[in-house]
Amino acid sequence: xxxxxxxxxxxxxxxxxxxxxxxxxxxxxxxxxxxxxxxxxxxxxxxxxxxxxxxxxxxxxxxxxxxxxxxxxxxxxxxxxxxxxxxxxxxxxxxxxxxxxxxxxxxxxxxxxxxxxxxxxxxxxxxxxxxxxxxxxxxxxxxxxxxxxxxxxxxxxxxxxxxxxxxxxxxxxxxxxxxxxxxxxxxxxxxxxxxxxxxxxxxxxxxxxxxxxxxxxxxxxxxxxxxxxxxxxxxxxxxxxxxxxxxxxxxxxxxxxxxxxxxxxxxxxxxxxxxxxxxxxxxxxxxxxxxxxxxxxxxxxxxxxxxxxxxxxxxxxxxxxxxxxxxxxxxxxxxxxxxxxxxxxx
Length: 346
Hints:
With 346 residues, the protein is of the alpha/beta class. 49% of the residues lie in helices and 13% in strands.
């Protein structure tokens, strides 16, 4: 049985896509079978993986994307939703991608109407359960252990549906004021989404749909802090101040709201995953990749998986690259281990 893990924060620029790619790669490196799902109409994850092949891919494979896969429900096509032939990620066996599509946003309004559970729901009843049905079919076809869902920075009906259809979720953050504001916003939004999902599942109309809306099973796994400058093995003082404030907001404001609405795991599970009590919901603090980011994008390979020839350096500079690579490998390995441990309880 696979576990679907959404990476969500409606604040942009917090490395959701990079984290999805790197975490998926590391899980596959540990022997897990992983499907990445690009639900962001900007398609950054798809572009990261396909690179210069992006344009030709859509021309040659018009049905191998999330928009086409959901069309039977959203465009009332006379066929059932079926698994898409996912893209194998080069260099990492066991890791595949369901490509995104810029036109996925076309489904936003129709899904929003369907999710209002209004009188028109009878004609739109197949929409709310369609995404979960698709993910299940794709996970089965790929014998996946995990499905990682890269979400856009939005509070629209698509994200509401994608999150409510997931088993668990991670909240990537960056150490700044706007991430702190986003945590407060999520503290109000996520409980509303959870209560909507419970009402939707209880709806007789949605229970009898071709793609029934699943019972809410969503659990919060934790947060990831990225995009800060390192110093002496940690963050600089300024960045650490924001990291501490965000961790406090999560612990004191977000998590109590999630607990009230049954969106968290037992407290001991978070501690058993290897987190310190003061940061029991922060799974990893990952500094900037700096100059290695461009090298990683060029080779469509995580920083921690770059080989010596990919660096293009020799001598002392190569030695420094190796040290950084090994540091990032350790960080993402620990993150993957914690995600595995937590998701097992979701």
